[in-house]
């Protein structure tokens, strides 16, 4: 593909516009939670004193045994309306908060991704709606570590 001046200017404009629309305070919002060292500290950093109820309305699909902790597939789904946030936490990882997803429009939640796990532990998913904080968890046995320090 030949890059001409018009293409370069359009590309530069749209790249700059995308950067201008990105809000820096959204990055800083969870920076503390990503840097905490323990699972309990991460929960407190994210939710403070709020009650997080265990619910089957948050559905998880994870393998019972993961051959390689570096690539553990996870599917999250829920029939709840107006989901605003989804957090994925791995209890025994060096950084327990694996992902935070911010949904900008009301939608039914369905996502599939892969996470790293240092060792066998519970994977916890917390979902936030305007009225509720709900969680579900599933134990995954890891045969070979993925993000451990050793």
Structure explained in plain terms:
The structure is a single chain. The chain has 150 residues and is α+β, with helices and mostly antiparallel strands. Helix content is 25%, strand content 34%. It has four helices and nine strands. The chain has helices spanning 5-21, 24-29, 31-35, 39-47, and strands spanning 53-54, 58-61, 65-66, 72-78, 85-90, 97-102, 110-115, 121-128, 133-142. Strands 1, 3, 5, 6, 8 and 9 form a six-stranded mixed sheet that branches. Strands 2-4-7 form a three-stranded antiparallel sheet, with no helix packed on it. Strand 8 and strand 9 (133-142) form a beta hairpin. It starts with a helix and ends in an 8-residue tail after the last strand.
What's the SSE blueprint?
Layout (H helix, E strand, L loop, with lengths): L4 H17 L2 H6 L1 H5 L3 H9 L5 E2 L3 E4 L3 E2 L5 E7 L6 E6 L6 E6 L7 E6 L5 E8 L4 E10 L8
Helix content: 10-25%
Uncertain spans: none
Structural class: alpha+beta
Radius of gyration: 18 Å
How do the helices and strands follow one another from N- to C-terminus?
A: HHHHEEEEEEEEE
- Report the strand count: 9
Terminal CA distance reads: 45 Å
Shape verdict: globular
Largest sheet: 6 strands, mixed
Give the percentage of residues in beta strands.
Answer: 25-35%
Mean pLDDT: 82
Given the structure, what is the number of helices?
4
């Amino acid at each position: 593909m030949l890059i001409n001046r018009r293409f370069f200017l359009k590309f530069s404009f749209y790249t700059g516009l995308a950067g201008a629309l990105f809000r820096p305070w959204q990055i800083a919002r969870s920076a503390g939670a990503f840097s905490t060292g323990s699972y309990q500290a991460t929960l407190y950093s994210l939710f403070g004193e709020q009650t997080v109820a265990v619910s089957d309305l948050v559905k998880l699909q994870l393998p019972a045994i993961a051959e390689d902790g570096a690539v553990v597939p996870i599917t999250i789904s829920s029939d709840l309306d107006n989901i605003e946030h989804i957090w994925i936490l791995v209890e025994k990882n060096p950084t327990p908060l694996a992902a935070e997803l911010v949904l900008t429009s009301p939608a039914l939640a369905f996502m599939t991704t892969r996470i790293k796990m240092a060792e066998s532990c519970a994977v916890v998913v917390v979902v936030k709606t305007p009225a509720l904080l709900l969680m579900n968890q599933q134990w995954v046995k890891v045969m070979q570590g993925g993000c451990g320090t050793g």
